[in-house]
Design goal:
- The structure is a homodimer.
- Chain A has about 525 residues and is of the alpha/beta class.
- Chain A has 18 helices and 15 strands.
- In chain A, the strands form 4 sheets. Chain A has a 6-stranded mixed β-sheet, with helices on both faces. Chain A has a 5-stranded parallel β-sheet with strand order 6-5-7-8-9, with helices on both faces.
- In chain A, helix 9 links the parallel strand 7 and strand 8.
- Chain A is globular.
Chain lengths: ~525, ~525
């Protein structure tokens, strides 16, 4: 293997080449036969198709060269092997290891970290089984029927999106073991609304904080314990209704305020933690450990496929490199994620964090400013809802927005009705095919209001149905896409220093320390406006 | 009054002037005393503050000149007076009239349209009262306790966002009359999930479609009627569980399949219809007609304030013009909406439609291409959740994204707990003040990973609490902001031709008509991929 080098994007030969290639006109390249040639298996039964991208063969070739020049697969293998790729925090990056070993065991101080993740999931599976069989019950003797996750950011968005994505699947597959709810915002209305909707006697809380110091989460823990005391019956012991997911070094780990604790470590970033105990506890309780393990298997399948060196056979790499082309050569500032499945209603919000928190950086891995664009703005809502909302701008606005469609042959709950010759799922897919075509090819009109220029690029991830394996692969596909882009940009996709300053200033305000600097006065003036 | 002229933005003297003014550095202009000078009452007890915008007095002056040169207030008065400002469809634009008369009565064929809107709301109020008092009941004799709105786009996003925004307020103010649910997506999983969670005997459906021909909505109507028949008890008559909100000329208006019908007209665009019967029916049923009428009063207050000619006293105009400056002079492609209130969780999704569907246009009101950027991409999630998610990119990404914060002194449900010296609501507001300050002023660091350049602009809308008046004003503020921007860009903000092509192609697929054109083959190839 050649030595690994870390180079800024604009210092590579392939990038220079790429910038000089002519942009393909979709009207010229998007033919029915191209659609057949541009599918790549993405894992978990999913397929990624890039036919409607403005990337002809010469661009794809150059993107493949770029991935080789930036040694993306080699660097991915380094990550899988335990390289300390989170340079800012000097940490390994091991979320892929939570779903299975790929290259070789990763150990630290003689201890096998993969075995540690497996052990935690085994403990969770046992715990969930006991809860489901009624061997672990609430403190007043009632079976638990509801689980409430208290966490924010990565401890909330990913697990919540996955829970919603599998709720319908679980119902029709007899895997709906417990209802799950989530409390995240420090806004007291969030916890109050959830607390009002549950029965304290039959509810199990999961407190999720890797550091054990997240202000919002600890506040909501205290909030919920207070509500339990006030509204629960005599004899209710709140501590017997709460488990923790945290790191072994956190202050929570040694607390006796929990029924049990499950562990993560510093090598799993919040936004990458859905396949660790952070997602494992809530999803195993809600749907059974076997469901969560099927999700892990799908993610592992995607991880393995992402090791393929040929860009035309690596869905995550292709998605990443086309995204880079759109960002750095075509100059598009945002990307929309549009799942044609109501069950994926919060999946775009998870990807928004995953992508924007990972790659919204202005310095490279050495701390030097980069002189090219990095991560784009990510947004999205489920189709067909989006069609009746912001698609107007996507079709006819002055800016072009690349689109990432997701669709499935079958609905999740399986219940459907034929109306005017087609069932709803067929209508849904007809709309999806229609949108891709309309965006790409447009339609001329004598009425300028009805003119569709087309030339608006999209990709499609599709599969038979949204089951746990497919969902796991979908999750891992985007994690790996984001990773490849970050590596190509030569940035660290695994820290998030940009969230710190706001925390520090909020603490300063709440601490009441007088700050007579100009910035301190501004801070105080805004706080005074709000506090009236 | 001078004659009204319609001029492209780039043909105005003020725009040329604006482009030549120097961008202010936030570090130089954002001082505590500027915060005091930059608040404008926005109606409903709300205040808009623009201290942290990169607009010094010279820019504000030029924006005021631009609003005069583009005759924005005069054109707004024209709209209020019934001008056919929706040029593409040759229609009046009368959503402001749904919340009260401002300039003069608007009549058509001798009939007073404002009186028509009032009459519909009066009929809704009477109907809702009868439902609440049990005088109108389900077909098996049970009282209605749940209302389900079936609609998509403007018939869904606005009413849903407003319902969620007032749910907590209604609970603590004894106005929670009925639970509301929404079905929008043609994905059968959407209707199936809602149908599984309701009791057919006690549920009232509202079918909302202005044209009476919306594919998704009619499909979901049939879907729901089928479920009612299959799961309801013998004797249940589905038609007696459904009302319609539609135009008087729609095929639905003459149907006897409804318990009752309430009317809108062609002068209320879908995304502007929340204050018409489209929002009125569901919100009056959920929270009582008096609550909805308080929301109308707040919106009317904002509408009246938007008539003010001085930009420094007109919150919607100032917000609009600063947004235009950011879009056309500073070149920012997107804007984030960040409410620090969990109750506003879906308000950004509504604004996304409102703004992007209104101003995502490439031709002016005469159908001529414009050579400047129009509507930006809009996205957002509630803080503090967003802080732990995409704020990383907002603080340290390579692109700058203007921010629109919203905050309130008090929480909505009023339940709170002091933890470590402050309650949750105070922590929430401390975080909000901290974010504005951090974005604007940044903080230098020797560690380039921890460097915050600042200079990232934001505005703040704030008030005492999120009650119906404040919510109405918030809604109208953004409607009027979008309207002013569209007028300044000389585009038609009131049509949405860009959503048509996709519909046509989907219908073609479902109709099965063979299409041997290249575009027809592409369409079919994508459909085949999905249908597997």
């Amino acid at each position: 293997m050649p030595e690994i080098k870390y180079t800024n994007l604009d210092k590579t030969a392939a990038y220079t080449k790429l910038k000089n290639l002519k942009k393909a006109e979709l009207k010229n390249i998007l033919k029915a036969d191209r659609i057949k040639r541009t599918s790549i298996a993405a894992g978990g039964g999913l397929t990624y198709n890039y036919a409607a991208k403005q990337a002809a063969d010469d661009v794809i070739d150059a993107l493949g060269e770029l991935s080789l020049e930036q040694q993306l697969i080699q660097k991915y293998m380094e990550i899988l092997s335990g390289a300390r790729m989170n340079t800012g925090e000097d940490r390994m990056v091991l979320h892929q290891l939570t779903r299975g070993q790929t290259v070789k065991p990763v150990a630290e101080n003689g201890s096998d970290i993969g075995a540690f993740y497996i052990e935690q999931q085994k403990r969770i599976a046992e715990f969930a089984g006991k809860v489901h069989r009624g061997e672990i019950r609430g403190s007043t003797g009632k079976n638990f029927d509801t689980v409430v996750q208290i966490g924010i950011g990565g401890s909330d968005l990913g697990p919540r999106a996955l829970y919603l994505a599998l709720e319908g699947w679980a119902e029709v597959n007899s895997k709906a073991m417990m209802d799950a709810l989530f409390i995240s915002n420090v806004d007291p209305d969030d916890a109050t609304a959830v607390a009002a909707s549950i029965d304290p006697e039959t509810t199990l809380f999961i407190l999720v904080s890797k550091s054990g110091t997240t202000q919002e989460t600890l506040t909501n823990q205290a909030f919920v314990l207070d509500v339990m005391k006030k509204t629960g019956p005599e004899g209710l012991v709140p501590a017997r209704h709460m488990i923790a997911v945290t790191s072994q070094t956190s202050p929570l780990a040694s607390s006796d305020e929990f029924l049990d604790s499950f562990y993560i470590d510093d090598y799993i970033g919040g936004r990458y933690s859905s396949t660790s105990a952070v997602g494992g506890a809530v999803l195993s309780l809600a749907f059974g450990a076997d469901t969560f393990e099927a999700l892990l298997a799908g993610a592992h399948d995607a991880d393995v496929r992402a090791m393929e060196a040929d860009i035309r056979s690596n869905a995550a790499l292709m998605d990443a490199m086309i995204g880079l082309y759109e960002r750095n050569v075509l100059g598009y500032p945002s990307t929309a994620v549009l799942p044609y499945s109501q069950s994926l209603s919060r999946f775009p919000a998870h990807l928004q964090q995953l992508d924007m928190e990972s790659n919204g950086k202005s310095v490279n891995r050495f701390g030097e400013p980069v002189s090219y664009s990095t991560g784009p703005v990510i947004f999205g809502e489920p189709g067909t809802n989006g069609q009746h909302s912001f698609y107007q701008l996507l079709h006819q606005g002055t800016d072009e927005v690349p689109l990432q469609f997701i669709g499935f042959k079958k609905s999740q709950r399986g219940f459907d009705l034929e109306i005017e010759g087609s069932d709803s799922q067929t209508k849904l897919n007809a709309n999806l095919a229609a949108q891709i075509t309309a965006f790409a090819l447009g339609q001329d009109s004598d009425n300028p209001n009805k003119q569709f220029n087309g030339g608006r690029p999209s990709s499609l991830i599709y599969g038979s149905d949204l089951n746990p394996e497919a969902l796991g692969a979908l999750l891992a596909h985007f994690e790996n896409k984001v990773m490849f882009q970050g590596l190509a940009w030569n940035i660290n996709s695994f820290d998030q220093e940009g969230v710190q300053l706001g925390k520090v200033l909020a603490k300063k305000l709440l601490g009441g320390a007088g700050d007579t600097s100009e910035s301190g006065k501004v801070l105080k003036a805004y706080f005074d406006l709000l506090q009236g």
